[in-house]
Amino acid sequence: MKFKFLLIAGIGILMASAPILAHHSMAAKYDTHQSILLKGTVTKISWENPHVHLYLQADNKAGPDTGWEFELGSPNLQIQNGWKLDTFRRGDHVMVTAYPARDGSRFGYASKVALSSH
């Protein structure tokens, strides 16, 4: 009986901690001590849980344009902050302020997105 109780309690503790383990630290993935500013054209925006993703063809005066992907908050958080599904569309010219990925890839966490004049 005691073993059965300990087994059930252990399983319960593991199940309760799963959501905590599933969430990642922003500082582990992104360099939160520096930010980048990019201008470019929206190529895609994905409103899927757990995060909205914005894809950008960045303007690059020195060479070919560069594709970037930015992670944002959850769809619900973006809506609470005033965004709508059509706030940004494919082809819009935007300015993105973001924390870059620590691994040097063209990925970042967008802290601000605003329409930009081309």
List keywords for this structure.
118 residues, alpha+beta, OB fold (Dihydrolipoamide Acetyltransferase, E2P), 5-stranded mixed barrel, 26% helix
Note the topology.
Layout: H1 2-22, H2 26-29, E1 36-48, E2 51-58, E3 66-71, H3 75-80, E4 93-100, E5 107-115
Parallel strand pairs: 3-5
Antiparallel strand pairs: 1-2, 1-4, 2-3, 4-5
Folded structure, characterized:
The model is unreliable at 17-22 (pLDDT under 50). This protein has a single domain (26-115), classed as Nucleic acid-binding proteins (OB fold (Dihydrolipoamide Acetyltransferase, E2P), Beta Barrel), CATH 2.40.50.140. It is 26% helix and 37% strand. The chain has helices at residues 2-22, 26-29, 75-80, and strands at 36-48, 51-58, 66-71, 93-100, 107-115. The protein is of the alpha+beta class and 118 residues long. Strands 1-2-3-5-4 form a five-stranded mixed barrel. It is globular. A hairpin with a 2-residue loop joins strand 1 and strand 2.
